[in-house]
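Team,

Forwarding the record for the chain on the shared tracking sheet. I've put the sequence and predicted structure together so nobody has to dig through attachments.
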Amino acid sequence: MGFSDLLQEAGGFGRFQWMHVTLISLPGLLLASQNLLNNFVSGVPTHHCSLPANYSLPDYQVTFGSCEKQLVKAFIPLDPSGNRLDRCRRYVEPQWHLLVTNGSANVSHLKTEECLDGWTFDHSEFLATTISEWDLVCSLRPLKQMIQTIYMGGVLTGAIIFGGLSDRFGRRSVLIWSYLQLAILGCSAALSPTYSVYCIFRFLCGMAVSGIIINGVSLKVEWIPTKERTLVGTLTSFFFTFGQLILAGLAYWLRDWRKLQVVVCVPHFLFFAYSWWFAESARWLVLNRRSDKALKNLHRVARINGKPINQLTLEVSFVLTVISVLFCRFATSFAYYGLVMDLQKFGVSIYVMQIIFGAVDIPSKLLALAALTYLGRRYSQATCLFMSALVIFANIFIPPDMQVLRTVLACLGKGFTSSSFTVVYLYTGELYPTVIRQTGMGFVSTMARTGSMAAPAVLILDEVFPALPSIVYGGAAVLAGFFASILVLAVTH
């Protein structure tokens, strides 16, 4: 009797599966917060150079008062756009004449200097972020994106390490450990005294997130009958979608990076507590010569499902079918995080953009479900990748002042990459046989995390040419779409 037949004998997709899938998927509500946390923890407040510590107001300017808001024009020049104060330069000498009502002067010849006394940050949008706490602005601006790259490096490392460990020690054991690691180290990150310490904690949190994702997916897949996997896989992905909306609400409510860091990590202590109820994969137990334990788990599942079984024999057969989806995983992750990790560029409240970007996942998941049902895995993958590339390229040609249209196209692009994520996660989980599923998933997750690591770094290219990041993101999606199309043709013929 094959394992699929054993699952049917034990009740198919019954009460146990519903409970198992729901409890494993529940942490997804906060995994979205981990992946997108840097948007808020490292949000960039409006800022300018702090005024010199000691200055005296000329007698003829006393009528203007000593309010810093009034005096700032005498110390801080406008940036090249002329619409806001320069963030990184100030006048060497105060220019009091600029305070005269309706006064005008040619200031291009005036000497400026770097912010020798630090920066003054506006706290209307963020009360405190890593940017304002450690002055990660101007020459240190790339360090903001470095936090996300280091975190994704942890996710990549976790995919490699925890993928191999779970094939050796079991999915359940590594999953339980990952919950505990994220809970403890995530909360510890909120106490970080320096930038370097925070980056170390974020790296270790990334490892734990990877352990939760790949082991959670495997535990779900290996206890669900084949015909229910598409529907269940799509529906459970909504936990990640709703998690994006929760993140927007929490960030808007707290507005302090340390408090937000704690709030999104503390619930993992609860997930750790109830994860001991999970059943280890019977497939893995059989392949590791622990058939007695596998049989015990199957009887437990049958009992919960109300299907008592008198006799069970364990015989698992599988066919090794490995189709490379490496570049599809890389490009999907690369384009996805390229879109969602720079919400401040749209000129709309970052909290509103997070809600919009989270909400757009709802129709995209339903689109993925329909595509998987009627088109199949390969056609769905290729279509989602090509459509995301098309939208990303289209946004390059939209003028910056047409913010509404640019935002709509960005949401469409995010929706298609999200659909591609749904397809590729389900596809990958089904491709590998049980004996190497975790190692295989760890391998393809490595490519995905490489893409997510590279995505924040590419954003820096906008200083060379504003459209360059979009060209890179869209180009990667096109190449992956062609790769998926080749797989379609290869299988068809």
